[in-house]
Design brief:
mainly alpha; Rossmann fold; 2 domains; two-stranded parallel ribbon; 10 helices; globular
Length: 236
């Protein structure tokens, strides 16, 4: 699942994974867990993430390679946050050799809407759950917390205080979008000629985006069943 920061990839990946009972694999969550646990990977990644930069390709590729080899991912998975560079996409093609073709969906949202969304996101300071997890906190409540509500809102999962994400302040948001346009947006060019690529409008309400996502994936499935895509994620 491709798209800029704030496009709703996490929300849509979570919903789709629950519906089809396949794991949502979020490299961002893996890295945040490592930061919270104080691991070597976490310490290396913490300063990079706080500045809105991307963690190095070598680290991310090894994280994903290991995760996709686990038994629960062998029957299907959703990748949220990977690949983010063309080098990572090349590595993913190699990882996918001999497996079913990749279905790639780009959730497109313009910068003005992304800046508005990112400025109102929150995260639980205790368990790290974000407001892109629908069962934890809803968007209107999140926005109220960031706007300065007197009593801090609490995470529905653990009761911790909700705070603005450190990588969502105005300066870092602008930097993250610059990094996306420079380093990650070329992935659309990398994938767009594949018969398994689709793009959907992410500026719609979440339910409509979910419907369009399901329809896009179904349309790819029809093409695969008709024999229009090459196996293993290879480009045709």
């Amino acid at each position: 699942m491709l798209g800029p920061p704030g496009a709703g990839k996490g929300t849509q990946a979570e919903r789709f994974g629950r519906r089809w009972e396949i794991p949502k694999i979020s490299t961002g969550e893996i890295l945040r867990d490592a930061v919270n646990a104080g691991t070597g990977l976490g310490l290396r990644a913490k300063a990079v993430m706080a500045r809105g930069k991307l963690v190095g390709d070598d680290v991310m590729i090894e994280i994903v390679r290991e995760r996709l080899e686990r038994p629960d991912a062998l029957g299907g998975f959703i990748l949220d946050g990977f690949p983010r560079t063309v080098a990572q996409a090349n590595a993913l093609d190699a990882i996918m050799e001999g497996r079913d073709p990749l279905i790639v969906v780009d959730i497109a949202v313009d910068d003005a809407e992304l800046i508005r969304r990112l400025g109102s996101r929150t995260i639980c300071e205790d368990c790290g759950a974000g407001d892109d997890a629908e069962e934890v906190i809803s968007a209107p409540e999140s926005a109220a917390a960031v706007a300065g509500q007197t009593e801090p809102l609490r995470c529905r999962r653990c009761g911790g205080r909700l705070v603005q994400r450190t990588d969502d302040n105005a300066e870092v948001v602008r930097e993250r979008l610059k990094v996306y346009h420079r380093e990650t947006e070329p992935l659309v060019e990398y994938y767009h000629l594949r018969p398994t690529f689709r793009s959907i409008d992410g500026a719609q309400p979440p339910d409509r985006v979910a419907d369009d996502l399901a329809a896009a994936i179904e349309s790819v499935g029809k093409g695969l069943r008709a024999g229009n895509a090459a196996p293993g994620g290879a480009r045709r």
